[in-house]
Design goal:
The chain is built from 20 helices and 25 strands. It is an alpha/beta fold and about 550 residues long. Among the domains are: about 90 residues, Transcription Regulator spoIIAA (2-Layer Sandwich); about 60 residues, Oligo-1,6-glucosidase, Domain 2 (Oligo-1,6-glucosidase, domain 2, Alpha-Beta Complex); about 70 residues, Immunoglobulin-like (Sandwich), CATH 2.60.40.1180. The protein has an 8-stranded parallel β-barrel. Strands 18-19-20-25-22-23 form a 6-stranded antiparallel sheet. A 3-stranded antiparallel sheet has the order 7-9-8. A hairpin with a 4-residue loop joins strand 22 and strand 23. The two termini are about 30 Å apart.
């Protein structure tokens, strides 16, 4: 499958409008469509729809539940799965449950964490990090109507649910089945890591989170066995695998999880022209359950947080905090010589964290290169974008194309003109779809957008022809003789595959024996269709070049070693 992620309104106006764009999606090769939150949110600021006021209704400007069901049918007819967010950690302050809680109904007060004074919140705060330190500091908000301090991890208007209450569990089972009946096939479990609160901890990744996911999954499977879960757990590499199931939960929790470490590692490698940190981090991952798949992405609607473990950094001689600092400098464009144009999101003066907003194209250097009118730098930026997409399309799992990246859309500098968006610069990378560009791009193969678009379509086509890329097969980093080049290896029963990615603009010369040892004396590069003799001493890899090598027949491939 190839996934596509879009805001229904920004992509096509309404749900019916999305239904009119199915030829476009099918033409791109999309088989999985994640429409960003579309259940009715609160009025005004709503965190991009992640503050749901009514989960049984669609946002009125997008359409109705019947429109959603009709769209799901249309998608299914084309073999495309509909993916929606299930916002489990919180509801809007205006949601019916929260309204009844505010009115004093004890049943609904027990759906939330409401404390009469600061004594308990203060104890929790000792170990809680802050998600939005800029615009929503602290994890509790005083609500005069509720007459208490309400747990609000994200914004004050997003009330955390009390998953210790079985009634909350039952509400969500009911909601999952309700939406599955409308045709939703995959649920993106939003902010899943935060579900369980335990005093003295960061209240993320607690063991109960996995038990709850497992129970929700078991319940869904009784009547809607095709429903799949995707965990949105933007957590440290050490915690991530828990969402696909470790130990007794093996293969019984989420079917998919975002590969946040890979995404972060891609941008880190581009900035430093050094892939050793990424390779080391990937090497440290245990194998995932074979019935699960990674959600692979270059960009999404959120900011990029530099989730690089200090141990991973230390392994390649880097200091974790210093490298994270460098990446923030680099992608905000402050670092001398940086190609990137991004914005700092949520600077936290206590931890030094500065997350980054920006579209893939602007972060990869296209915006600055176009402004400078520098054809060479434009070329580099295009190659960077295709390189990153080659990695996610070659990794095994479900690559998630983020709307507009197929057209190399730049930052939307006018994002702040919408008053509800002005304070949240993540909107800089949530642009309107450019349909005029989409209509002409295939006829303009020499423009940056045309090159990215053609390159992406080519990657998708080649990917489809390679059973080696099946999601159940692990991708392992091979030792790379040159840190600028990432070497990945996949051992499929059909034959071994080796991928090489040059993360620098320079040509790299590699000793061929590294690859000969795995692939034999001759390989075929699936991306160019050409044969590559490996019985020579060296191999040249031009700047930002990707190779997808499979052993050529009769080449004496050694397969598993
Ligand atoms: C997830 C969403 C993000 C949102 C947060 C709170 O992380 O991706 O956009 O702000 O949850 O719902």
């Amino acid at each position: 499958m190839v996934g596509y992620v879009a805001y229904a309104d920004r992509f096509a106006g309404t749900l019916a409008g999305v239904g009119e764009r199915l030829d476009y999606l099918e033409g791109l090769g999309v088989r999985y469509l994640h429409l960003m939150p579309l259940l009715r949110p609160r009025e005004g600021e709503n965190d991009g729809g992640y503050a749901v006021a009514d989960d049984r209704a669609v946002r009125p400007d997008l359409g109705t539940m019947d429109d959603l069901a009709a769209l799901a049918r249309g998608l299914r007819g084309r073999g495309i799965s509909l993916v929606l967010d299930l916002v489990l950690n919180h509801v809007a302050r205006e949601h019916g449950w929260a309204e009844r809680a505010r009115a004093g109904d004890p049943r609904y007060r027990a759906y939330f964490h409401i404390h009469p004074d600061r004594s308990v919140p203060d104890l929790y705060e000792r170990t809680l990090p802050e998600v939005f330190p800029d615009f929503a500091p602290g994890n509790f908000s005083w609500d005069p109507e509720a007459d208490g301090w309400v747990w609000t991890t994200f914004n004050a208007y997003q009330w955390d649910l009390n998953w210790g209450n079985p009634d909350v569990f039952l509400e969500f089972v009911d909601l999952i089945l309700h939406l599955a009946n409308r045709g939703v096939e995959v649920f993106r479990l939003d902010a899943i890591a935060f579900l369980w609160k335990r005093m003295g901890t960061a209240c993320q990744n607690e063991p109960e989170v996995h038990w709850l996911t497992r129970a929700l999954r078991a319940a869904a499977r009784i009547v809607a066995p095709a429903v799949a879960f995707k965990a949105e757990a933007i957590v440290s590499p050490a915690e991530l695998m828990g969402y696909l199931g470790r130990g007794a939960h093996h293969g019984r929790v989420s079917d998919m999880a975002y590969h946040n470490s890979l995404m972060v590692g891609l941008w880190s490698s581009l900035a430093s022209r050094d892939t050793r940190l990424l390779a080391g981090a990937l090497r440290a991952f245990p194998p995932k359950p074979t019935n699960t798949a990674w959600g692979l992405y270059v960009r999404c609607h959120d900011d990029i947080g530099w989730a690089i473990a200090d141990e991973d950094a230390a392994r390649v001689g880097l200091g974790g905090p210093a490298h994270r600092h460098f990446l923030s400098d680099f992608y905000s464009g402050e670092f001398p010589g940086s190609f990137a144009r991004g914005l700092v999101f949520q600077h936290n003066p206590y931890t030094g964290d500065r997350r980054i907003s920006g579209s893939a194209a602007s972060l990869a250097g296209l915006e600055a290169a176009l402004d400078a009118g520098d054809a060479g730098r434009v070329d580099d930026a295009v190659r960077r974008l295709l390189l990153l997409h080659a990695v996610i399309l070659g990794f095994g799992g479900v690559p998630l194309l983020y709307m507009g990246d197929e057209l190399a859309l730049l930052n939307d500098s006018g994002y702040a003109d919408v008053p509800e968006h002005a304070a949240d610069n993540r909107w800089v990378h949530r642009p309107q779809m450019d349909w005029a560009l989409a209509a002409r791009v295939q006829g303009e193969p020499d423009t940056p957008a045309g090159r990215v678009n053609a390159g992406l379509r080519h990657l998708i086509r080649v990917r489809r022809s390679l059973p080696h890329l099946h999601a159940s097969v692990e991708t392992w980093p091979l030792h790379s003789p040159d840190g600028r080049v990432l070497l990945l290896r996949r051992d499929h029963p059909l034959g071994v595959m080796v991928q090489a990615y040059n993360f620098s603009e320079q040509e790299v010369v590699l000793p061929a024996w590294e690859l000969r040892g795995v692939l034999g004396t001759e390989a075929a590069d699936a991306l160019t269709g050409s044969r590559l003799g490996l019985d020579r001493p060296t191999l040249r890899l031009e700047g930002y070049r990707a190779l997808w090598l499979v052993a050529a027949e009769g080449s004496g491939s050694v397969g598993l070693v």
